[in-house]
Queue: 2 jobs
Job 1
Amino acid sequence: MILGIDKLGLSLEANDELLNSIVEIGKSHYPNEFGGFLIGNYSDDNKRLHITDMILPENFKASRYFFERTTKGIDKFLVNYYKETPKKFYVGEWHTHPDNSPIPSFTDISAINAIINNQNACLVNPVLLIIGYSKTQVNFEFYVYFENKLYKYGTC
Ligand SMILES: [Zn+2]
């Protein structure tokens, strides 16, 4: 699927297979939240992002309304991706909102600030994928943090 933000001239492509597996893994942790790291590559002008992979955290704390991961144990993998061709990067994170909508909470927004301030990552415009789901439906939204604001990707 391809999404975009006209105002910023940004677009994002994510493999359907990858999205499906993220949703399935997320749902398997019901009723708790769950999440992971998104990996991808950017076009030469940095305007187009292709999300190709994800990595699951080895260390995390989760409850129905809370998810916190650490990079403990997977730092190595995040760095290894940088050496691949075409170059892949840690581009953002995903997490679920069980029985809820895919709207960022205050905690989500402060978590983004923590990601940006992480000197190891050098992630300027992190992407946030939130999957809201119930027994009968799944809704997900992609967001990007751009110049101190969170923008939602829409259909192109
Ligand atoms: Zn959240």
Job 2
Amino acid sequence: MTNVVHIKPGNFTLYVDEGESVLDAALRQEFIFPYSCQSAVCGTCGGTILQGQVEYYDPEAVELTEEEEEEGIALFCSAMPKSDLIIQVDGVIAPPNLPTVSLPYHIKYQQDLSSKMLQLMLYPEGNDHIHYRAGQYIYLHNSKGQKQAYSVTNAPSSDCHIELHVRHTQDNEFTNTLLADIAANEVVTIEGPCGLTLFRPKAKRPILMIAGGSGFTQMKSLFEQSINIHNELPIHLFWVVREKDDFYSELPELWQQQYEHFQFTPVLSREHDSWEGASGRIYEVAHQHYPDFSNHQVYASGPGEMVKATLEHMQQHGLHQQFMYADALEE
Ligand code: FES
């Protein structure tokens, strides 16, 4: 049974499954909800029950006095609704209203993913961090005041780090400055989150992910989120690049081995003698697998022209506009 929880003062609605705490449901549905210990001790997740009743996993462990409980105070990391609830909790933010902010981050070079792609990790410099949802992007500012948009490559994590895959060539002024910033241990500014290409599990349709080049980064974040929320809808990733070496990550192959519901088709945009896989336009390759797209939802990322041509083609073959998700459609 699912209970409905209304959260004030924001007037948000949350759906909590049987045996689930209010906090777990909020995080699963990508709310920002204050918490820390997650074991009914620190009080960070505390609020007031205005209507309804809760029970606790382990009532003995709950650090509340009798008086506090009588006043309706509850610790929502451990409180499970016994009925529909109206609660008051400060600091809750509902998706997708995550505010865009600029914050300092410490940036760390992780590794070369290929001759052109760097993996960077960013950690918040202060106590605050950017709240984002899988599929969103940020602007990274270098010390010369230049900025560049990058998809966040990881789904939100408990240590609040941000992973970026950054394309770098020797003559790229932005990334040259960035690498100098990293070497000098500079703190950089991140601005975000931006974008509305978010994982939509409520659209119960098989998922096609279309990635062109570094557009893979956004698909990685969305796929990680799908795993975090235990999505089992079939997902088929098509990733197109120019040269074989441009497949800079082996993760899709690993996911394919690990998850039955995940399928991967690598595509080269041109034929090569040493390549036996699919080649050509990505939408033509997808079309060979799916003659009709009317039951699918599609996430697409990569060069704007490619994304638009792909979605247009799919739309001509049944894809409904409301199930197309791509930042390129917002440009
Ligand atoms: S998060 Fe610490 S008491 Fe709930």
